[in-house]
Write a structure and sequence with these properties.
heterotrimer, A alpha/beta (537), B alpha/beta (525), C alpha+beta (350), A: alpha/beta, Dimethylsulfoxide Reductase, domain 2, Rossmann fold, Barwin-like endoglucanases, 3 domains, six-stranded mixed β-barrel, five-stranded parallel sheet, B: alpha/beta, Ubiquitin-like (UB roll), de novo design (two linked rop proteins), 14% strand
């Protein structure tokens, strides 16, 4: 989300989920919406029935392609080239919103400079998308009164992830589509409370409400609020933490409700780090692959067993109620943390989740107006600075959070790893409808398990025929980092040369293969492109 | 050999043709329907030429409005007004559709026109397309009319070859193309919205209105649907002028109407008469009266969802409004004449059975209600009716009529309601007296018995009985098992000594008194 | 514009239907086939109302309001007609309310009560069906209880976009089924549960809820789905043993009464036998159960020791995108204020 923060001043979905239905054109890129966000996909389909145009950019023939007016089947990792191609046409054919650019943005010159050379023919060569489709898509998007962009991990999980997002922001600003109802730039959040975890400062560089840890004022404010001296040094990111363990700089690790063994790239490296770390505590609702490495495992209460709030993709803070008693002796995470803090010499005295929210409101201006009382019936969308504020349906109305919207165009750089003789296929990863993340939850739901109980790697007919592989055969997939076995499904969803795996299954753990190469700014690993070899096993 | 002209009357002098006024049917039987030249030679396509070269679309619509033409498909909605709605609807693409899904049992008006004069329909449609701003038309025709389809196809090809269909017709810049869509035999596809759903490849199910087809019709574009006969009248109105058309017929129903005369009538066939002609004129004049000099009982008008009118309505001048008033409707113009040997309950059952099995199944009242009504009618005609059944039937009929989604359902109870209105005594005879006055309902026909005083034990009746309900041996007295006898009457004529008598006679004739007494004794025992 | 419904003067905007205006104003017009998410179908006819000056009743779901309209929704004649409709539906319905799992949450039952249907006057033949379809792990399909409101068909087509189910036959023999009657698992069904959520009768029911409890015995609690980032508001239906029996949803939230397979059918993990129920401490490579006291002490001792010995930056935490805002807040506060490091992150990027 670093990209959007840089361009607009805020890194969240600019508009609301319901607004998708009112768009005149929708550009979906790097989002397998029907499987990863089915309910948002309903809105897209409804928009389509309402007469909206739908452009889908994806190397795979995902289900949404069925509904699309135009499908741009790009090669993996060529997003910037494609986006630049669209911008080239929009500038060339004068589909710009000049008034908007002049009044509300800065650094437009940089766009003109860079886009010059991304003519459709050139972009077609890089992306594999026919030049005429690039022109068509640019017109479809550029001519729409209200155009909405939806994207997800297919955009961010690249070494160029931040640049991808910056380019998307450019495209939207060129056409005046930010700060407008039913339009915007809308990153779809993968997990139910990623937005909240970020908002509440579960990030090494910011306090709750995106207040920088290395800002003196902010540091002072939080030191005072919490009554302790606080570090002003930016902390380590997930990947840096594991590197830190290897280098023996990090000695104790607390994992709350995560399963990095399956979710993080280069699993073998993670396993080694977990073996090595001096003290590991894992707090979860199930015995996960990560918990197996723990010194202490703490049983946590699930979402159904506690009060609290989640913040969804559209910045809406919503309340969940405790519906059942905690299972066994499990406790809610906040109670556990409080007990630990108090054991370590602090005096935390929260009697309910609601009290914690009141503290959040005091220290985090974007949550300033949130209270349990207010969101009992319906949630509120941040920014919501005070208790009278009605919440914000769409961001950047009239003015960007950072003042002027900033164009930060980027040059296309190929993915970190390209197929070669040893690893001739490109592997891209993602999710399946019936499962979620590392299957901690969905794997314990018998119905979902029955529907999809093992990985079926997608491979094209041409590749399968060449290797004499049939539906249901087992193959050995290897990369520079490791190898896994998987069953295959032969399908036209992937083009020749590309294979797709989900990262749900420990038995066919895609992340043994993936490349931990990071985006230099957002530190997001390149899950979406790595080179692999495939053999029949 | 010389002919004696006086002995062979001209066809115009025949009773059947004498009082007809053939406008729409004018060419039928006189021109070769497969020859566009024949049609042109009979003033064909002159109206189109006039429209495209001299008239603006609004002028065409005004002319049609002026003529007072009302939809010939049943509803009787003013055609000009319908066109105006479609014309006023905004949209760059519009459609004009001809409803040739003639599904009424015994109706063949559209078929006659399509087979006899296909070009007149085409011409009417092209004019309509020009008027409302449509450049594409569909003819939705039932697949059971292969000859009509063939002739329409020929006509379209011929018109295209002559430049009367296609691009830039008559150099006017007006483009129009026509397609035929053969229906798959569902009656409900004759309903406008069901018909359009069917063209779209969807299940043939009506949709609620609004939106009206004029605004959101085929493929959600403004569309106008008219019936075959309506289109056939258009060239005449344009050619001869609205005023001369309006001179025909009545104040509110101008022009002529084609009827399909069927049933127990001397002359059957298509009859086109001026609106306002009485039913008596059509049935006894043109139709030549009831066959075999039997008594007239009722005429069913308006197709399966029309109504049955009794002899006191024979002098009703036929127009849209008077028929509705009388509990029937114009429908597409089917006239089924029934004589004294008809059972009106059975007639209602017959038509209800038809609409019931043609219900699309979408709305509750039509889907479920018509089935329950049919069940009640079945009960009554089988002699199992209860007195409450009439009340139930009325309740259901009113509900189905008021609550149904489309025209099919709304009119489905008409045969029941009209027979209840005019022939309630027949229902009561079935229920209270176990009698079918028309002598139609098998279960209610009085069975036969054998006069034991006459029977000679010849076994002829035993051999004749198709369901083996006569017991007895040679030279012993035979007996009919009364419970099982279905009154088919096969045995009666076989008896050499006239010993077989229908049960209802015995109480009327003293010579059978002994049979009656025995009957009563049995009951007492 | 202004109009009058049941004598009440109401405000409405152009393009609204009578039903929408009534619902906005708390006037309950019966309906079975209506859903705000669908084009009006006008099939069940339950929402018929009288409009002054219009001869026959019209369906409120399809009729748009106009200025000055005077509407009545519960006149004696309308009540009578609705009663007939309910009777017609019941006459072709497998009436087994005594044991039906939908009882208490069944619109047909509610309307039968509302219009005092004591005895169905039109008993007769029932449409023939082959019995209950049990072809997937999530829900059953019982055509004998289907009243053909077509909501399932329309939701599948208009919202889900898949059109996995459609109608077969016509008239009295109409029924909802899949192409060629194939099992749902063999066709494009996404098991989103949209159809199950909106089925007004017991024709579509969650398998997990069968023979568990009467609807009025279930406790309902509102929650937010723990899966993806849409934030669907869901209702957990809980039996007396704290088991999630089924998941339902309301219409006034971000998901507008809609679900996907995970939210609708995938929350049973909560009651899984595999849940962690006691703290575990590893000794010699094996876990043993421990008391909270012991486990927390051990964690606090180790984190305290390492902090004191190597500084706060020798500790780190992964917070969670699955935990609540409050818990994330406390986790970062714990690391920053208690451990003295900013090394707290979570898998936002993954």
């Amino acid at each position: 989300m670093a990209g959007l923060a840089k361009s607009f001043g805020s890194g969240a979905m600019t508009n609301s989920i319901d607004e998708i239905e009112g768009a005149d054109a929708i550009f979906v890129t790097g989002s397998n919406t029907t499987e990863a966000h089915p309910v948002i996909a309903y809105r897209v389909k409804k928009a389509k029935q309402n007469g909206s145009k739908l452009i889908v950019a994806d190397p795979r023939k995902i289900d949404l392609v069925k509904y699309a007016d135009l499908w741009l089947q790009q090669k993996p990792g060529t997003d910037i080239a494609l986006l630049n191609g669209l911008m080239h046409v929009i500038i060339r054919d004068d589909l710009l919103d000049k008034k908007y650019i002049q009044k509300r943005t800065e650094n437009f010159e940089a766009v003109e400079d860079i886009m010059e050379k991304y003519d459709p023919e050139h972009v077609a060569e890089i992306t594999g998308v026919p030049a005429e489709d690039i022109v068509k898509a640019a017109h479809m998007y550029g001519e729409a009164e209200r155009a909405s962009i939806l994207y997800a991990m297919g955009i961010t999980q690249h070494t160029s992830g931040t640049d991808n997002v910056l380019s998307i922001a450019c495209l939207a600003m060129l056409t005046g589509n930010v700060g407008k109802e039913n339009a915007g730039v809308n990153p779809l959040r993968g997990q139910n409370n990623v937005q909240g975890a970020c908002d509440l400062g579960a990030l090494p560089n910011v306090y709750p409400g995106y207040q920088a840890v290395d800002d003196e004022e902010v540091n002072k404010k939080f030191s005072e609020a919490w009554g302790v001296e606080l570090s002003d040094e930016v902390g380590l990111t997930v990947t840096e933490i594991f590197d830190g363990i290897e280098e023996d700089e990090v000695k104790a690790l607390y994992v709350m409700g995560e399963n990095p063994v399956l979710s993080d790239p280069d699993s073998n490296h993670i396993r080694e780090a977990l073996e090595q770390v001096e003290f590991l505590v894992v707090q979860d609702i199930f015995m996960s692959d990560t918990a197996e490495y723990a010194d202490v495992v703490l049983p946590a209460a699930s979402f159904a067993e506690k009060d609290g709030t989640f913040t969804n993709s559209e910045r809406k803070v919503q309340k969940l109620d405790q519906v059942i008693e905690p299972i066994g002796e499990s406790k809610s995470d906040w109670e556990i943390l409080m007990e630990l803090a108090n054991r370590l010499g602090h005096d935390w005295d929260y009697s309910s989740a609601s009290e914690i929210m009141d503290e959040i409101a005091r220290v985090s201006p974007i949550y300033g107006g949130i209270s349990y009382e207010r969101i009992e019936e319906e949630g509120l969308q941040w920014p919501c600075p005070d208790y009278d504020h009605p919440g914000t349906k769409y961001l950047h109305k009239g003015e960007f959070s950072r003042g002027l919207g900033q164009f930060n165009p980027a040059e296309y750089i190929p993915p970190a790893e390209k197929p070669d003789e040893d690893y001739p296929y490109v592997l891209t990863t993602g999710r399946r409808l019936f499962h979620f993340h590392t299957r901690t939850m969905s794997g314990n739901s018998p119905g979902l398990e029955e529907q999809y109980s093992e990985e079926l790697m997608e491979i094209s007919l041409a590749d399968a025929q060449r290797m004499e592989i049939e539906d249901g055969d087992r193959v050995l997939v290897s990369s520079r980092r490791g190898e896994v076995e998987s069953k295959v499904t032969v399908t036209d969803r992937v083009p020749e040369g590309l294979v797709f795996m989900s990262f749900h299954f420990a038995e066919s753990a895609a992340n043994v293969l993936t490349n931990p190469a990071l985006d230099p700014v957002a530190k997001i690993p390149e899950y979406k492109v790595c080179a692999v070899n495939i053999e029949k096993s | 050999m010389a002919t004696n002209e006086e002995n062979i009357p001209s066809y115009q002098d025949l009773d059947f043709y004498k009082s007809q006024r053939r406008l729409a049917l004018a060419n039928c039987g006189f021109i070769d329907p497969e020859s566009i030249e024949d049609y042109i030679a009979s003033d064909g396509y002159q109206a189109l030429s006039k429209v495209l070269t001299e008239m603006k679309p609004q002028e065409v619509i005004d002319e049609v409005k002026e003529s007072g033409l009302r939809g010939r498909g049943g509803g009787g909605f003013p055609t000009g007004m319908k066109w105006q709605f479609a014309y006023d609807a905004s949209g760059d693409k519009k459609y004009i559709i001809c409803n040739a899904d003639e599904g009424d049992p015994g109706a063949f008006m559209d078929r006659g026109l399509l087979e006899g004069d296909p070009h007149s329909i085409l011409e009417g449609m092209i004019i309509g397309g020009y008027a409302i701003g449509a450049d594409e038309g569909y003819i939705y025709i039932r697949a059971e009319y292969p000859l009509a389809i063939k002739r329409l196809e020929k006509a379209i090809t011929a018109a295209e070859e002559k430049g009367l269909l296609g691009e830039d017709i008559f150099g006017s810049g007006f483009n129009f193309k026509l397609q035929i869509k053969a229906g798959a035999g569902a009656f409900v596809c004759g309903e406008e919205t069901g018909l359009m759903a069917s063209i779209e490849g969807e299940r043939g199910m009506p949709t609620p209105r609004p939106p009206f087809p004029a605004n959101k019709g085929l493929w959600d574009k403004p569309s106008n649907i008219n019936n075959v006969e309506t289109f056939a009248n258009i060239p005449i109105i344009i050619r001869e002028g609205a005023a001369s058309f309006k001179e025909l017929g009545t104040e509110d129903s101008s022009g002529t109407k084609v009827f399909a005369l069927t049933g127990m009538i001397e002359n059957t066939g298509l009859a086109e008469v001026e609106m306002g002609t009485t039913m008596r004129e059509i049935i006894f004049g043109i139709g030549g009266g009831i066959q075999d000099d039997k008594e007239f009982k009722a005429v069913q008008i308006g197709g399966p969802s029309g109504g049955c009118l009794p002899d006191e309505k024979l002098d009703l001048p036929i127009d849209y409004d008077s028929l509705i008033e009388a509990g029937a409707m114009m429908g597409s113009g089917g006239l089924v004449v029934m004589d004294e040997n008809s059972c009106m309950v059975d007639v209602a059952r017959f038509f209800l059975n038809f609409v019931q099995s043609e219900s699309c199944g979408k709305c509750t009242p039509c889907r479920e209600g018509t089935r329950r009504m049919l069940e009640i009618l079945n009960r009554i005609t089988q002699g199992e009716g209860e007195e409450e059944d009439l009340e139930l039937l009325r309740t259901l009929a009113e509900s189905v009529k008021k609550l149904s989604l489309c025209g099919l359902g709304k009119t489905a109870p008409n045969p029941v309601l009209s027979t209840l209105r005019y022939f309630e005594d027949e229902y009561e005879a079935h229920i209270k007296n176990d009698e079918c006055p028309g002598g139609v309902c098998q279960n209610l026909l009085p069975g036969y018995i054998i006069d034991y005083e006459k029977c000679i034990g010849c076994t002829y009746c035993i051999d004749a009985c198709p369901i083996d309900v006569v017991d007895g041996r040679l030279e012993e007295i035979h007996e009919i098992n009364e419970e099982d006898c279905n009154a088919c009457g096969a045995c009666e004529p076989e008896c050499p000594v006239d010993a077989i008598i229908q049960k209802n006679y015995i109480e009327h004739f003293p010579q059978y008194r002994h049979l009656l007494e025995e009957d009563e004794e049995e009951v007492e025992a | 514009m202004k109009l009058t419904i049941n004598g009440e003067k109401l405000e409405a905007t152009e393009g609204q239907t009578i039903l929408e205006v009534a619902q906005e104003n708390g006037i309950d017009i019966p309906n079975l086939c209506y859903s705000p998410e669908l084009k009006p179908e006008g099939a069940c006819r339950m929402c018929v109302v009288d409009i002054e000056g219009v001869a026959d009743p019209v369906t409120a779901c399809t009729t748009e309001v106009s200025a000055g309209m005077v509407v009545e929704t519960e006149t004696p004649s309308l009540k009578k007609m609705r009663k007939v409709l309910v009777e017609l539906m019941l006459a072709n319905h497998d009436v087994e309310c005594l044991t039906c799992d939908k009882a208490g949450d069944c619109k047909l039952q509610d309307y039968a009560y509302r219009y005092s249907v004591k005895k169905v006057r039109f008993e007769g033949e029932k449409t023939e069906f082959k019995g209950i379809k049990d072809d997937n792990p999530f829900f059953i399909r019982d055509n004998r209880k289907c009243i053909l409101c077509y909501k399932c068909v329309n939701l599948c087509k208009q919202v889900q976009g898949e059109a996995s189910i459609n109608l077969e036959n016509r008239g009295f023999d109409t029924r909802v089924t899949t192409a060629f009657d194939l099992p749902l698992e063999e066709i494009n069904c996404q098991f989103c549960g949209l159809c199950v959520n909106e089925c007004p009768t017991g024709a579509l029911m969650e398998k997990s809820a069968l023979r568990k409890a009467r609807n009025w015995e279930l406790k309902k609690g509102s929650t937010i789905c723990p899966y993806c980032g849409v934030g669907c508001e869901l209702e957990l239906n809980i039996d007396e043993n704290d088991q999630i029996v089924k998941v339902t949803t309301n219409s006034d939230n971000v998901n507008r009464g809609q679900t996907c397979v995970k939210g609708k059918f995938g929350l049973d993990f909560v009651n899984s036998e595999e849940r962690l129920t006691k703290p575990l401490i590893k000794e010699e490579g094996r876990f043993r159960e421990a008391s909270w006291e012991e486990a927390l002490d051990k964690v606090a001792d180790n984190f305290g020791r390492i902090r004191d010995e190597f500084g706060g930056d020798a500790t780190a935490a992964l917070s969670s995108a699955k935990c609540t805002n409050e818990e994330n807040y406390l986790m970062q506060k714990f690391m920053r204020a208690v451990m003295g490091t900013n090394s707290v992150d979570h898998c936002a990027r993954l």
